[in-house]
Amino acid sequence: MSGKIGSAALTVVPADSGAGSGSGSGSNGALPNTGLETPMLIIWGAAGALALGIALTVVLTIVRRQKASV
Known about the structure:
Strand content: under 5%
Distance between the termini: 78 Å
Mean pLDDT: 82
Helix content: 40-55%
Radius of gyration: 29 Å
Oligomer: single chain
Low-confidence stretches: none
């Protein structure tokens, strides 16, 4: 260890809304929305349908195995 200590100051300022070469920025300087906006009802509905499908497969497999062993 040398015992030397350094320090620095950093200041972050907002960029001008007109600055930059990117396309699609709004007039208020906000970033454009590029994500998928899927309603939560569709997501939960798909998850529920998947869970029901898995449960049905498990039940049918158990019934088939019980009938085969009799």
